[in-house]
Amino acid sequence: MTRGDRRHVRPLRGPRAGSGPCLTLARYELQAGAARTPSLRAFYAVGADAVDTWAVDLVTRAGSHHPQRDVGIMANYVTGLVFHELALPSPDLDAAGRIRGVIDALGWEAR
């Protein structure tokens, strides 16, 4: 990681990072920066396999019959939901209900 790359990561560490929409926007900016910057992309990719393994295990334990497929569907749905809420916040959003709807449509069974 170069010195320039560190400036993208520094705000995301520790209690000074904040929370809520500001932190989420900062994380998405880091992802966008990784897409544009090869050295940052390499740094960002270090933990990607571990996160993917964790996510597949999570959806498997949650009842998915097709975890490799469903983890991508769920990740894309939740990402879209977060982007929408960042741009156009809905005070009455029932994110859990919407996510439950996707889970039900995918046919997951509690285990």
Structure description:
This is Tetracyclin repressor-like C-terminal group 31 domain-containing protein. This protein has helices at about 5-10, 20-35, 40-45, 50-60, 65-85, 95-105. The protein has about 110 residues and is mostly helical. Helix 2 (about 20-35) packs across helix 3 (about 40-45) and helix 4 (about 50-60) crosses helix 5. It starts with a helix and ends in a 5-residue tail after the last helix.
Question: SSE layout and pairings?
Answer:
Blueprint: H1 3-9, H2 20-36, H3 38-45, H4 48-61, H5 67-87, H6 95-106
Helix pairs in contact: 2-3, 4-5, 5-6
Give me the Rg, rounded: 16 Å
Q: Between the first and last Cα atoms, what is the distance in angstroms?
A: 42 Å
Number of domains: 2
Low-confidence stretches: 8-15
Major sheet: size, sense and barrel closure? none
Which class best fits the helix and strand makeup? mainly alpha
